[in-house]
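$ ./design --mode recover --in tokens.txt
reading tokens...
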């Protein structure tokens, strides 16, 4: 089965060892630079941060030319072409789980964090370190995108500082993978990540692309970014 067919049938797919060399080095360098900023010690710049336990450091690609070049380069154009007709950068962020106490992240759909109806978008998750069950690798629940094209009900968890879209017994498919691997999933796909119980941080990079701009109907302005890849 092709990656594109797998993505459509399950809502996600994985490419091991897809990003390497200068691109992986640039992402790691930018991640470490943002972690070292004073604001990161207070939880970073996102309302779902949990201090050093779980950092979401977002919307900073313009400060790192090599990261910006990667986001708009040939590799991302090839990845997004599998799911999008008119790919635009919608959002991007580094996700860092601190050592020993790195917080898990509950089952959710990324689209649940957009508070108005919108077309599904594509999340491209890149492991900057080997992602293991011990340090918080992703898990996904299979979802046929041709049949289940909706956002499920979510509730806000004050303790976890996160939205929760599923709390049932299905463990989904765990996706441990080596550094440089890409996991792609729809904004409709339920996914989670485990806690980091190891002695080292677990770093990842999440780039999200929409099919055309996602505009806030109350303002007419883009929800986040609306930068075309073409």
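writing sequence...
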């Amino acid at each position: 089965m092709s990656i594109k067919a797998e993505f459509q049938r399950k809502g996600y797919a994985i490419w091991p060892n897809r990003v390497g060399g200068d691109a992986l080095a640039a992402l790691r360098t930018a991640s470490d630079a943002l972690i070292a900023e004073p604001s990161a010690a207070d939880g970073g710049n996102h309302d779902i941060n949990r201090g050093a336990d779980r950092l979401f450091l977002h919307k900073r690609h313009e400060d790192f030319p090599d990261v910006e070049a990667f986001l708009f380069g040939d590799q991302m154009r090839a990845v997004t072409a599998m799911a999008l007709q008119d790919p635009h950068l919608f959002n991007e962020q580094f996700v860092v789980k601190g050592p020993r106490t790195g917080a898990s992240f509950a089952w959710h759909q990324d689209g649940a964090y957009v508070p108005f109806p919108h077309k599904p978008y594509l999340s491209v998750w890149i492991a900057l370190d080997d992602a293991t069950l011990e340090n918080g690798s992703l898990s996904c629940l299979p979802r046929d995108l041709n049949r289940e094209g909706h956002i499920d009900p979510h509730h806000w968890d004050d303790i976890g500082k996160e939205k929760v879209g599923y709390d049932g017994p299905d463990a989904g498919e765990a996706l441990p993978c080596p550094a440089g691997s890409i996991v792609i999933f729809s904004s409709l796909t339920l996914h989670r990540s485990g806690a980091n119980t190891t002695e080292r941080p677990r770093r990842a990079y999440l780039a999200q692309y929409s099919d055309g701009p996602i505009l806030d109907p109350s303002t007419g302005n883009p929800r986040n970014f609306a930068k075309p890849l073409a």
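exit 0
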